Amino acid sequence: MADALAFIPANYESPHPETCAVYVFDAVNESPVPVQTVNIPVQTANSNISALAVAPGGTPVYVLVWPDGATCFLYAINMAEAPPSALVLATPALFASGASPGGTVFSGSMAVSPDGSQVYVADNTDKVFVITTAANNMANVVQVSVGNRPQGIAESPDGTRVYVANSRDGTVSVIDTTTNPPSAVPPSLQVGHEPQGIAVSPDGTRVYVANSGDSTVSMIDTTTNPPSVLPAPVTVGQNPLGIAIAPDGAVVYVAHGDPTDDLYVIDPTNPNTGQIKIPLNALLQNQAFTGAGAVAVTPDGEYVLVLGAPLAPTLPSLLVQIATTGPQKYTVTKTINLSSLADSLLVPQFFGAFVTPPTPVVSQVVSLTFDSNTLALGHSIKGTVRLNEAVVSPGWVTLTWEPLGFATASPAPIPVDPSDGTSLGFTVTAPPTLGPFGDTVGTLYASFGGATVSATLTLEPGADTGVLQAVTVKSPVMVGPNGATTTGTVYLVEPVSGPTNVTVVAVAIHTPKPIKPGTGGPALPVALVGNPVVVPVGQTSETFDILIEPLGATTVYEMTILASAFVTKSTILTLER
Question: What is the pTM of this model?
Answer without folding.
Answer: 0.62
